[in-house]
Structure formats: C-alpha cells, structure tokens
Amino acid sequence: MERSDTARRWPGSGLESRIGLAALTAAVLVAAMVRLAFSDYSLWFDELASVFFASQPTERLWSAWMLRETNPPLFYTLLRWWIEGTELSDAGLRVPGIAASLAAIGVIYAAVARAYGRRAAVAAALLLALSPQQLYFSHQVRAYIFLYLAVAVSFAGLVQIVLATTARARAIGWVLYVMGAVAGIYLHTTGLIWPATATLALMLVDARFRPFRGGLWIALAVAGGMIVLGSSWWLYITFRQLAQPNGNLGWMQGLGLTKSALVYVATLLQSRQISALQLPAPLLVAGFAALGAWRGRGEAVTRLTLACLATGTALFLVLNLKQPIFLDRTILWLSLFPLVLAARGVGTLRGRGYAAALVALALALGVSVALTRPHLPKEDWRAVVTRVAADPGAALLVDGEAMGVATQMACRVQLHRPACPFAVVPLVAPGPQLDSWGRGLAARAPARGGRLALPADARAYVLRRPFHDALVDVQRTGLLRGADATPPEAPVVVGPYPPALLVAVAGRTRVSDGTIRVP
C-alpha cells in the first residue's frame, strides 16, 4: 500500500511549525472558553449516577461489586480523583470532560499533521474546537468523551504504524494503539468495538497486516493479544453480566431505521440537532470530507480512515441486532473519521480557497454552537430538589432505588448537603427493577412494624420522570387514580399532597429491606 505523498514528520521547528502551534493554541483556548462558559446547568439522571459511583472507594470500583454496573470503572476513578480535590457543582463536575475534549484536539492535530501536514491539522483543530457535538459531550459527566479521546490516541498510533519508516517509530505507534484501546475498553464496554474495527481495517487496506501474507501481521496479532490481556478483568466482568438478567439495559430500545439514520448522519457530521440555520455546518463538513476522500483516495491514511469508518459502522449495526447500542453517545468516536477526511479536504486547498474554507467553517459552526446552547440541558434536577427542599415537612416519593440514590446525589450537588433535607421514599413495584445498579443502595425508608412511618404532618410530593414515574407506583396502590398519568418528557414534581396520602400509602404497602414494596 502506498503511503501518502503528503505525509511528513511530526511538526518540528521553523515558521510553519510556529504558525501551526499558534493556530492549535488558539483553537484550544476558544474551545475552552466556549465549553466553560456554557457549562453551568443541571446534571441529569445518568450524570448523578456517575457522581454516586465516583463517590465509592477505589477498591470497590475495581472489584466484583461492579457486576451491578454495566459501565467500567476507569471514568469513575478519574472523576473520583477530581471530586476529592474540588467542591461538587454542575460546572465543576464538567471540567474533566472539557479537559478530555481539549486533549483530543491536540491528539488529532498531531495525527493529522503527521499524515497530511499542518494545513489539514489546523482545519481539524478548528472543526473540533467549534463542534456542537464536542461541546455537548464535553459537558456530559459520563465516559463518552474520554472514550473518544482514547480512540483518538489509538488511531494516532495506527497512523504512526502505517507511515513509520523505522522500527522505533513503529514501536511507538504500537504502544499508542494498544494503550488507547485498553483505556477505551475500561472507559466504556462498547470500546471493545474499536480494536476489532482497527484490526479488520488494517487487514482490508494494507497487505502487510494480512495473516501469513504480510510482514506485520504477527505484530498486529501480538497487539491484539496485549489488548485482550490488558482488558481481561473487565472482559470477565462483562461475561458474568451477560450471564444474568440486567435491568440497567432494560430502558434501551432501538431507534428505528429513520431515526437511526438521522442520528448517524448528525453524529458523523459533528452536529446535534439540525435546523435550517444549522444546516450549513454539516453540509460543509460532508463536502470537505468527500473532497478529502476523493483527493486522498490513493493515500494510506485516507484508505485506513475510510476502512475504519465502514468497518466500525458495520460492527455497530451487527451488534445492535442483539442489543440496542446504536446511540449518538456510543457511536461518538466514529465521528473522528469523517473529521479527519474533512481536514484532509480543507488541507488540499491553497491560498484564498484555504482561508475561505476556514472562515466558512468557523462561521457555520459558530452559529450551530450558539443554537445548540439552549438544547444542552436534559433534566432540571436543580429545580426538583430546590422545590421540595423549600417545604420543611416534605417527603418525596420516587420510583425505584436508583432514583432514590440519584435524588440524594442531586441534593449533594445542588444543595451542597450530605443528604436531602426531606425524606426520600423509594417505591419498588413487583418485578425486576429498572436501573438495577441501585438495588440496596438507597437510603432506608423510615419504618415501624413493617410499614412506612413518617411524621404525621408530612406532605407528599411525587417525582415523575420518563421510565421512572412514581405516580404510576402510587396508582398501583389504588390512590390518585384521577391524576393524569401521561408519561412526562422530563422530571417533574407534582404536589404537595396532604399527609393523608402518605398514611394511605403506608397502609397499602410494606417495608422490606428499607424500601417500600408496592403490591
């Protein structure tokens, strides 16, 4: 396979390098300012779960205790280290994700500069700095942006391997590839798809990596073995999880063909939602990616990038037939490959055409980022806990133990208290719990004689949320039958209800293991 005729060494000294580093610094600074400026809004349920797991002892996170949680412990460990040195706040908890997003800009800049030169690398940095998608996921207190960074490091290793002309350079590439892949698996279980994608892509486009034919297939096999060995503990945990019913995945449903296609296209083109004013940005990204794929069709890295995109997509679709995993957050790292191609396309332009392309991308992406800002918040838990906390005699009914845990975490983040100043009462309906990771972890409900025991003047509030609707639990007991039970689109608190409701709930339920069992 031919190497790129534009491939060059990592940026070194000289005017070109200084201009490139100045552009990279500017991109990182702009990205940091935008991400930090927009970061102060309420965490949502999944992020509150992250805060809970990050509050656990490190030895617990790296033990069989994690059988209850489908997400690996590396992100929680990193978040725990951050929490230990800072105060809990919405914006503060988003800083690690923002840092990972900024680090990805540097990693991808270096990889693109290695493959296509400084001009393309500057375009890649600009795309990442003003990407609405990167803005959104850098704010998520979840592992997805860290997985993106890990895959970027691993892919940079592949670029190094493919273009290396010395054994030392290729060895560095193998180290980056393996370390990034192992880190990705410990960040999110779907990270397993990346080394499979990389292996198949290398064998498809480069004969040197094909078994028994090329000179590098043994090295590829050894690297694969090291990835398996390095991630073996989490592979074992995952195997045990698959052998038992898992309520953590019960909410996941297929998006359907049309929505899956829309999510796929938007994700690949660095977008979140696409409106008329936001349409120019993904169209420009798509156009430059097509240009880069065409003009670089004979280049090693371009063919590898296209193969990674096609192979990764195919693997996601196949696995999605078994378990719905084709979601914007799980396929986030696939967007790396169109971005590299788009940077290649911009990098092929010269003179005013190159400058015009950068300006057009900056304007289109800037508009898209501004229009994305109102869509960043997912759930307003700040409003939930502050409303209930304003009532000194409140008791909040929630659905399931995981919601009880999330509510306590919301009180820690929003009210800066170790526990909620009101009673949190988890109602557990018959059958497997959704989000079963919370089983046995919620604060125990006050009980006397196997019945809920709250102060006689306690007023009831009911927390309703998609997939976790405490109103449905209350109605199962025969109470509040006249209330509108249309599923809410976001968390909402209804009430207050008079103390008689809690008395009635206590009479129609029983307390077992600290939770209220609904018949």
From TrEMBL:
InterPro entries: LipidA_mod_glycosyltrf_83. GO terms for molecular function: glycosyltransferase activity. It is found in: Cell membrane. Keywords: Cell membrane, Glycosyltransferase, Membrane, Transferase, Transmembrane, Transmembrane helix. The chain crosses the membrane at residues 21-38, 91-113, 120-137, 143-164, 171-187, 216-237, 276-294, 300-319, 331-347, 353-372. The keyword rRNA-binding does not apply. Its EC number is 2.4.-.-. It is a multi-pass membrane protein. This is Glycosyltransferase family 39 protein. It comes from Sphingomonas citri.
